[in-house]
Write a structure and sequence with these properties.
single chain; two-stranded antiparallel sheet; mainly alpha; elongated
Length: 188
């Protein structure tokens, strides 16, 4: 990203994540410190008046701050998911909620996957779950990914009762998702 008014325009034209702005301020403190109470947009406007080389340096520092913040967020997310999994007690295994078979092979499936919960701003994990056979578990994750990407998945050769069961799971997944504070930010 550069601050010359061409690349990076998208970041400047919308509100920047406050956590990212704090990371940027810390990263550029020695080279081009923001003024007290200066917004990111105002700082960028001031930075655009600097020389090309100075803007390139600032862009590199912003990239470093962004990468560091992304790594920190991923570590926090991984820790949150690990803690949620440790606290999760699915109880006794039962047959697949879609096909009614394979009790010995079923897997506990969080109706709203933990990673999606974290991204949507859940403070505490929602452990609402069902038991699914490996095939339906994989199918459900395909449906959830498509749902988050606003795409449609077409399936054929699946018995209507199983298709209906998967559809009901998606409806419940959406209901849980929209109950979380940052659900509009969740994208795949």
């Amino acid at each position: 990203m550069t601050l010359d008014g061409r690349a990076g325009e998208d970041l400047v034209s919308r509100n920047v994540d406050p956590e990212l702005w704090e990371a940027i301020k810390a990263e550029v403190a020695a080279t081009f410190p923001p003024q007290p109470d200066e917004t990111f947009i105002a700082w960028c406007a001031r930075a655009r008046e600097e020389s090309h080389n100075r803007r390139a340096l600032l862009a590199a520092e912003i990239g470093l701050a962004s990468n560091r913040l992304q790594r920190d967020r991923q570590r926090r997310k991984n820790a949150w998911i690990a803690a949620a999994r440790l606290a999760f007690d699915p109880g006794a295994r039962s047959r697949c909620a879609c096909c009614g078979k394979y009790e010995g092979l079923t897997e506990a499936h969080h109706i709203l996957p933990l990673a999606v919960q974290y991204d949507a701003g859940a403070v505490s994990p929602i452990h609402e779950h069902i038991w699914l056979c490996p095939t339906h578990h994989a199918a459900q994750h395909v449906f959830i990914s498509a749902l988050l990407a606003n795409k449609t998945v077409r399936i054929s050769g699946v018995p209507p009762a199983e298709t209906d069961a998967l559809h009901r799971l998606n409806v419940r997944c959406v209901a849980l998702l929209i109950s979380l504070p940052n659900w509009l930010r969740v994208r795949k």
